[in-house]
Amino acid sequence: MKKPPREEPRDDLRITPPKTWAAGVPAVVHALEYSLEQAGPRETAVDLLTMNQVGGIDCPGCAWADPAPGHRHRNEYCENGAKHINDEATTRRITAGFFREHPVSDLAGRSDLWLNQQGRLTEPMVKRPGSDHYEPISWSDALALLADELRSLGTPDEAVFYTSGRVSNEAAFVLQLFARAFGTNNLPDCSNMCHESSGFALHETLGTGKGTVSLQDLHHADLIFLVGQNPGTNHPRQLSALEEAKRNGARVVAVNPLPEAGLMRFKNPQKASGIVGRGVQIADRFLHIRPGGDLALFQALNRLLLEAEDARPGEVLDHDFIRESTSGFEEFAEHTRGVSWADVLTATGLTRAEIEAVRDDVLRSERVVVCWAMGVTQHKHGVPTIREMVNFLLLRGNLGRAGTGACPVRGHSNVQGDRTMGIWEQMPDSFLDALRDEFGFDPPRAHGLDSVNCIRAMREGRVKVFLGVAGNFVRAAPDSAVTEEAVRRCRLTAHISTKLNRSHAVCGETALILPTLGRTERDHQAGGEQFVTVENSMSEVHSSRGRLKPASPLLLSEVAILCRLARRTLGDGPPGVPWGEFEADYGAVRDRISRIVPGLHDFNRRVARPGGIRLPNPVNEGVFRTETGKARFTANAGHMPYVPEGHLLLQTLRSHDQWNTVPYTSNDRYRGIHGSRRVVLVNPADLTALGLAEKDRVDLVSVWHDDAERRAEGFEVVPYPTARGSAAAYYPETQVLVPLDSVADISNQPTSKAVLVRLERTAPAAP
Ligand SMILES: Nc1nc2c(c(=O)[nH]1)N[C@H]1C(S)=C(S)[C@@H](COP(=O)(O)OP(=O)(O)OC[C@H]3O[C@@H](n4cnc5c(=O)[nH]c(N)nc54)[C@H](O)[C@@H]3O)O[C@H]1N2
Ligand SMILES: Nc1nc2c(c(=O)[nH]1)N[C@H]1C(S)=C(S)[C@@H](COP(=O)(O)OP(=O)(O)OC[C@H]3O[C@@H](n4cnc5c(=O)[nH]c(N)nc54)[C@H](O)[C@@H]3O)O[C@H]1N2
Ligand SMILES: [Mo]
Description:
By secondary structure, the protein is α/β, with parallel strands linked by helices. It contains 32 helices and 33 strands. The protein is globular and about 75 Å long. The two termini are 48 Å apart. The model has no long low-confidence stretch (mean pLDDT 92). Molybdenum atom binds next to loops. Its cofactor is Mo-bis(molybdopterin guanine dinucleotide); [4Fe-4S] cluster. Belongs to the prokaryotic molybdopterin-containing oxidoreductase family. Residues 120-491 form the Molybdopterin oxidoreductase domain.
C-alpha cells in the first residue's frame, strides 16, 4: 500500500525531565514503531535479524565494532541502527510525478525532515539550466552529460568529488581511482568535518591516524574515559561493551557539558535483567566540563601525575616505556609543570578536588582507555586536546598493551574504510606510488581541496563541477548561507544518493540526481550477486551483503555508476584500469586493493572468513611511524574559550532521533524534548542572568570577526543542565551559525561545538 507523503511537522514543544538511563525496552519499542511505519513488517523482520550477523548486512548506523563471531546476540543491533536501516528500507517512493508537483524552489523551502520522509529516489533526474524542475533522464544521457562537463573543464582541479562515510570500500576505491586518473586530488569527505582533528593529532604523535583499541581492550580496561561523546544515542552498542567492562571491574569517567542519559545508566535490551532491572550504572564519575575545557583538564591531570611521581619516585610513571618508546618527555614535563591551576579551573569549570579524584582513579589503574568523539574534535584546539590525551596515555605506558589505548569513536559505518581506500585530499606518496605502479598512470601529487576549502573555491568560481557520493554536503557543511551561495555558483552538481535531501534542492545551474542501491539491497551485476566490505572503528574489515529487493529496477550500484562514469569521461584510459571488469565483479576491485593497501593482502580470501580481517595497528606492535620513530610527547599551549558577558558558547549536536543531517522526528526522548527541534538548551542560572525563561522565543545570533549577520530564527528556550556559559542546539538547523572560517587549527575542521552566540528575544516573555 502506498503511503501518502508526509506533512511538514508543526512545532509544538513539550518538555519532560531528561532521562537518566538509556536503551532498555522502550528503546526497542520505539525502533519497531519507526520501522513498521517506514517499512512493512516483512522487511523489518528480515533486516533486523541479519544485521551485524556473519554474512549479513553491516549496520549503517555507526562504526562501532561487532563482538567476535559466536559471541553475537541474535539481535545484534540497537534502537538507532534499526531506525537507520528502516529509513532506507522505507516503502515510500519518489517518482517523476513528485518532481512535476514540486519544483526545485519548493523543495528548497522544505525542512530536512520532510525531504527525507518522501521516500526512496527511484530514477535518474536532471534539472537543466534555467529550469525550476527536475525531469527524468536515462542513465546513459545522465552520465554522458556529467562526463562532458568534466571533460570541458579548464583543469581537472575545477572538479571535486565529495564522499560520505556510508560508501563501501569498493565504491570508495573506484571513486578515488577515477578522480586521480582524471587528474585531481579534490576528494573532500565528511571526515574533514568529523574526526580530522583525531587523524592529525594521532599521526603526529603515534604515527597512525587510527585508534589502537579493540573490543577486547575495552572489555579488559580498568579505567575508561568517555570524552565528548554521547554513546546512548550515537553508539548505543558501545554501552554493551562498557557494561561488560564494568562487569570486569572497570571504572568509567564521563566528561561532558551535558549529563547525557547514556552516560549515566544502561539497561541492556538484549538481556532479561535489562528489561526488569535498574540497569548498570555507566559513569562512576561525571565531570560537568565547560565546552572546550578538555585540553586544560588533561593538562591538569598530567601535571598531577608528574607531581605524584615527584612524591613517590619510580612508582607513578612508566619509565621503561618513556625511555625506550617515546621522545620529547623533558620538554613536555617542563611545560606541563607550569600549567596554571587558575586557568584550568576557569577553562574547565571544575573544582581542583574533582580533578584530583580522577588522578586517584588513574593511579589505581593499570589499564586505561580514552574514548572521544565530536565534543573534542570540533573545537579550535581539537588537535592539541587529542595530543594532550596522548601525553596522558604515554605517561603510564597506556598504549600498545592489552586493555589500553586511544579510541577515537568513529561516526559513519565506513568512514575509516574510505580513508584506507585513499579518500583523502592529502594521501601520502607511498599510496600514490602504489597506484602508479599498479595502474600505470601518474596520479597528481599536489594536495586537493578539503570540505572547507572546497566551499571557498566554489565561492570564488574555482570549482565548477561537484559530484557527491552519498551524504548531504549542503547541510553537513558550515555557514549555510555562504555554502548555499557557493554551491549555486557551480555549473553542474550531481549526487549519487538513496534519499532526497537539501543538496538536491540547492544545486548548480545543471543538477543530476543519480539514485543508488542502499546497503540493505541485493546487488546483482554481470558477474553475479555482489557483496561489499566496510571497516569499523576498530580496524576490522568485513563483508556486508544486502538482502532486500531494490527500491526500484532503475537503481544502479555506486560501483556501477562510478565505473560507467569513468569510462565515459576517460574513454578507455588509463589502459591499466579495467572499469568494465570492476563493475561486473567487485572481487576484481578487491584484488587490486589487496596489492595497494598494506594489511589487505589476499583480501578476497581473508574477508570471506567469519569476522573478516583486523588491520594491524603498528602501535600495538611497538612501532611508531613518527618523525622521531618513537611516540611523541608534545608541549601544548593552553586555550581559554572566550565568552564575553551576555554571550554563550553554543555547541551544535545530534538529537536522539536523527541521522546526521536527517531528522527522523522532532523528538529527543532522552533529553525530554518533544515536538520541536528549534530549541536551545541553556543552564537555568544563565537564563536568569539573561532575563529569559522556559519557552521564551529567541533568535540565535552568531558573533564572529567578519561582522556578517548569522541568525537562526524562531527558537524556544529550554532550561537544561548544560555547563555554565554554554548552550546546545541541534545540527543541521544551526549550521547557519557556524562561520566558514571558524576552523580547528591544523585540521581545518569546522568548530561546530564552539559557536559564540547571543540570544535575542523575539516575543514578550510569557505572563
Ligand atoms: N543515532 C545516530 N548515531 C550516530 C549519528 C547520528 O547522527 N545519529 N552520527 C554518526 C556520526 S557521523 C558521528 S561523527 C557520531 C557522533 O557522535 P557524538 O560525538 O556522540 O555526537 P554529537 O551529538 O555531536 O555529540 C557530541 C557530545 O559531545 C559533548 N560535547 C560538546 N562539546 C564538548 C566539549 O567541549 N567537551 C566535552 N567533553 N564534551 C563536549 C556533547 O554534549 C555531546 O554529548 O555518531 C555517529 N552515530
Ligand atoms: N554543525 C555541525 N555540522 C556537522 C556536524 C556537527 O556535529 N555539527 N557533524 C559533522 C559530521 S561528524 C559528519 S560525519 C557530517 C555528515 O555529513 P554527510 O555524511 O554528508 O551527511 P549525512 O546526513 O550522513 O548524509 C545523508 C544522506 O546520505 C545519503 N545516503 C544514505 N545512505 C546512502 C548510501 O548507502 N549510498 C548513497 N550513495 N547515499 C546514501 C542519503 O541521500 C541521505 O540524505 O556532518 C558534519 N557537520
Ligand atoms: Mo561524523
